[in-house]
Amino acid sequence: MPVSSTIRDAMTRSSWIRRMFEEGARMIGDGQGPVYDFSLGNPTLEPPREFVRRLRDLVNSDEPGRHRYMANAGYADTRQAVADYLRQEFGVPLNANLILMTVGAGGGLNVALKALLDPGDEVIVPTPYFAEYGFYIGNHGGAMVNVPTRADFELDPAAVAAAVGPRTKAVLINSPNNPTGVVYSRETLMRLAAALRAAGEKRGAPIYLLSDEPYRKIVYDLERAPGALEVYEHAIMATSHSKDLGLPGERIGWLAVHPLAADAPQLMDALAFANRTLGFVNAPALMQRAVQGCLRASVDIEWYRRKRDRLCASLTRFGYSVVQPGGAFYLFPAAPGGDDIAFCQAMAQRRVLVVPGAGFGLPGYFRIAYCCDDQVIAGALPAFEAAIRDGRCSAFG
């Protein structure tokens, strides 16, 4: 068989998210009625007007050279705009030389892991986690080490510290979190930073904190989500504008390295090299220019808040156990009966697509992505209620 054994094995473990999304595409064409799809974090909310206006101006511009190659790290003025924005947000003295424009957060994470990892190095990841993290780490010869979060899905710094070993190179966190929507508190991040600092000093080598923050602007109960850059000197922030500007198909994001990170100039050179040799070369030129003027813009957060509140209230009333998310656009309820795969299969029979927690490293739960239109929620709520009311859920466990 021409496909490598490594890829064949990975494909058998491939993302439940995509599997359910593809199942939805099949069901839509079967003529059996509407499908209520909560499988993929693919926002239906359109980008803000600021972005649309700026993109239109750029497309209509006659300025030459807009579509040529640039430095692998990206346009200097765009990187400086990002640095200025982050300096105001976090109070960290960043400059353009510490920013790398990337092909989305996924591209950025792969670039960072390529630059950091030697074969056999370990990356600690709290559970539950975004389904692709294990593949990203494996792409570059690393090993993922999972640690549990608390019952409310808050990060457990003590568990992370206990998992640090001689091959630990980095800790990868995601806040606001996918799949739980939990926003890690600043106090928790500070405790994590202290634990990593102590572990790094003990062994004479820093542990990097790789923080995946594409949902940072989508928060409901805070003015803004705390970030790793403001608490830890060996932090690398990865983000994209897929969620805050509603641009998942445009694949535009960036990495930011703390100015006090170990060997920061050498690390930036490595990131730019990895960006090129992984085949990204550089982030899309037009999108770099477009987002440069929209760094403080975002989609309508209230649009998401209303959906969160409606789903949390309804599911709780039906009898589901739900931790109310503080950010992002996901719910991660406990699966009735405890068997998340059986529950999701039963919901699919009702034409409601949700993703089993097994796909996020935590069986017994399921994820709802509520970045959808209101009629999808309205149509699905009777099925969620019936799954408990008619007693079918007793067969899931």
Largest sheet: 7 strands, mixed
CATH superfamily of the largest domain: Type I PLP-dependent aspartate aminotransferase-like (Major domain)
CATH architecture of the largest domain: 3-Layer(aba) Sandwich
Q: What would you report as the Rg, rounded to the nearest angstrom?
A: 21 Å
* Share in β-strands: 5-15%
Distinct helical segment count: 13
* Strand order across the largest sheet: 2-8-7-6-5-3-4
Number of domains: 2
CATH class of the largest domain: Alpha Beta
Structure summary, number of beta strands: 12
Q: What is the helical fraction, as a range of percent?
A: 40-55%
Question: In one word, what is the shape?
Answer: globular
Distance between the termini: 38 Å
**SSE arrangement, N to C:** HHEHHEHEHEHEHEEEHHHEHEEEH
List the main descriptive attributes of the protein structure presented here.
397 residues; Aspartate Aminotransferase, domain 1; 2 domains; 3-stranded antiparallel β-sheet; 13 helices; 12 strands; globular; disordered C terminus
